[in-house]
């Protein structure tokens, strides 16, 4: 097996995804690890029970099934350790609770995932933690925002819904000069297209609900830390008692096997749709970081290896009073696209973006912002569905 491990270190990504996180001969040769359900774990004697001198001690501390997913994520991230939690939001909030204390100050990117902002404005505030939001395009200029009590900088690239790219290496370097931990929500790119820990980030966060699971039927998150920050994360995970279920871990691990080929299709289709939308008179602009027209495209090109299937566009509407009317007309005319939250599954989804919570980020004013998750359907059918939406906008 060590020969196989050595081989996988230099193998292609689809080869690695097919083989990481499983050791068939640990389980009588079965290809996939078994789903181990556990709360109680027995000890062979009182001494081992007292010292916890065995791999598994209680169900909340992991099982062979959850460990298999953790090992797979560590292999993808290059991390010292990974924890599994029940949702993508928990994957953000657990490290916040791990690294922040009353009286601390945190810098949170203003293009952050909405529920993360809500947690910061409610729970963190109640716990006596000060939060400021910063422009996603600040780059090295974040140096001016640190306070003596700043302890954490949270990043998300590209930004939620509007897809601004952040200069992660520059922000991380500045944060480390001030002794801050840097966390990043990397759900959009997955470790296949961006590896945060290779760019200065300390803690990489994923809603594996999305592309790793890939089938719109699992809610789960992972948090992967470098060696300097792993023990504190692991301690907080145990203290909070927040753990992922083995059945869900099994499903995510199975989804990982095909994530590479699925992401290739998502990327290819989304870019074709995005370029097509750029030429449509119904569209004011397209918010996709892999497009050369996008303001922070050069950062994406420098740091990222690919793009996924979710982006937004601004519907061209002259009268602000008709933003909602036109957006609803577009959405209600769609048939292949579902109207739903989340993304990363096999099906296309659409929604109108609400940007009313932004504090410092400039938001589009030319019309309502529509977010699209481009699924695995045929591109011609997706375009035809969008055409139906544009026809409805013209009639509204």
From TrEMBL:
<comment type="similarity">
    <text>Belongs to the trans-sulfuration enzymes family.</text>
</comment>
<keyword id="KW-0663">Pyridoxal phosphate</keyword>
<dbReference type="GO" id="GO:0030170">
    <property type="term" value="F:pyridoxal phosphate binding"/>
</dbReference>
<feature type="modified residue" description="N6-(pyridoxal phosphate)lysine">
    <location>
        <position position="210"/>
    </location>
</feature>
<dbReference type="GO" id="GO:0019346">
    <property type="term" value="P:transsulfuration"/>
</dbReference>
<dbReference type="InterPro" id="IPR015422">
    <property type="entry name" value="PyrdxlP-dep_Trfase_small"/>
</dbReference>
<dbReference type="InterPro" id="IPR015424">
    <property type="entry name" value="PyrdxlP-dep_Trfase"/>
</dbReference>
<keyword id="KW-0456">Lyase</keyword>
<dbReference type="InterPro" id="IPR015421">
    <property type="entry name" value="PyrdxlP-dep_Trfase_major"/>
</dbReference>
<dbReference type="Pfam" id="PF01053">
    <property type="entry name" value="Cys_Met_Meta_PP"/>
</dbReference>
<dbReference type="InterPro" id="IPR000277">
    <property type="entry name" value="Cys/Met-Metab_PyrdxlP-dep_enz"/>
</dbReference>
<dbReference type="GO" id="GO:0019450">
    <property type="term" value="P:L-cysteine catabolic process to pyruvate"/>
</dbReference>
<dbReference type="InterPro" id="IPR006233">
    <property type="entry name" value="Cys_b_lyase_bac"/>
</dbReference>
<protein>
    <submittedName>
        <fullName>Cystathionine beta-lyase</fullName>
        <ecNumber>4.4.1.8</ecNumber>
    </submittedName>
</protein>
<dbReference type="GO" id="GO:0047804">
    <property type="term" value="F:cysteine-S-conjugate beta-lyase activity"/>
</dbReference>
């Amino acid at each position: 097996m060590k020969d196989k491990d050595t081989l996988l270190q230099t193998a292609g990504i689809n080869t690695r995804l097919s083989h990481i996180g499983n050791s068939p001969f640990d389980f009588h040769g079965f290809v996939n690890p078994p789903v181990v359900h556990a709360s109680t774990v027995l000890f062979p004697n009182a001494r081992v029970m007292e010292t916890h001198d065995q791999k598994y001690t209680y169900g909340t501390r992991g099982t062979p099934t959850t460990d298999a997913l953790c090992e797979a994520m560590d292999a993808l991230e290059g991390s010292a350790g990974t924890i599994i939690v029940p949702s993508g939001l928990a994957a953000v909030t657990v490290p916040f609770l791990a690294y922040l204390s009353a009286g601390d100050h945190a810098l949170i990117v203003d293009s952050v995932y909405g529920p993360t902002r809500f947690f910061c404005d409610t729970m963190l505030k109640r716990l006596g933690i000060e939060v400021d939001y910063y422009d996603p395009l600040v780059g090295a200029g974040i140096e001016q925002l640190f306070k003596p009590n700043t302890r954490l900088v949270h990043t998300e690239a590209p930004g939620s819904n509007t897809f601004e790219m952040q200069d992660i290496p520059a922000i991380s370097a500045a944060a480390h000069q001030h002794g801050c931990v840097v966390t990043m929500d990397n759900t959009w790119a997955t470790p296949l297209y961006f590896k945060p820990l290779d760019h200065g980030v300390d803690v990489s966060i994923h809603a594996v609900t999305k592309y790793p699971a890939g089938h719109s039927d699992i809610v789960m998150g992972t948090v992967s830390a470098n060696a300097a920050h792993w023990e504190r994360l692991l301690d907080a995970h145990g203290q909070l008692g927040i753990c992922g279920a083995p059945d869900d871990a099994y499903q995510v691990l199975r989804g990982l096997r095909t994530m590479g080929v699925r992401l290739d299709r998502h990327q290819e289709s989304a870019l074709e749709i995005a370029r097509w939308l750029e030429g449509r008179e119904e569209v004011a602009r397209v918010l996709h970081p892999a497009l050369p027209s996008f303001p922070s495209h050069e950062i994406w090109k420098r740091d990222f290896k690919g793009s996924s299937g979710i982006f937004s566009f601004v519907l061209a509407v002259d009268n602000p009073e008709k933003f909602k009317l036109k957006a609803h007309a577009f959405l209600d005319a769609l048939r292949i696209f579902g109207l739903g939250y989340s993304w990363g599954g096999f099906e296309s989804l659409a929604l109108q973006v609400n940007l009313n919570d932004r504090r410092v980020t400039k938001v589009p004013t030319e019309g309502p912002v529509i977010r699209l998750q481009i699924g695995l359907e045929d591109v011609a059918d997706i375009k035809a569905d969008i055409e139906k939406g544009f026809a409805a906008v013209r009639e509204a």
